[in-house]
Amino acid sequence: MRRRVKQTRSLEERMAEQAAKLKAMADQLPAGTEREALLKRARIVETGAHLGDWLNSPGLRQSD
């Protein structure tokens, strides 16, 4: 049986929080590949967090 969890925050909010955590973790590391990998993951998560805004933008809405 699949366990379901009721989310209290939107996906965008959770993704933005995750991006902030990844950036904070990267700030604690010296320059190098591990830090760059965390920053790359943070950028990817931020992009995902903004996809909803982009998809709902007026420029993408089609007229019927």
UniProtKB/TrEMBL annotation:
- The organism's superkingdom is given as Bacteria
Stated name of the protein: Uncharacterized protein
Species name for this entry? Bradyrhizobium rifense
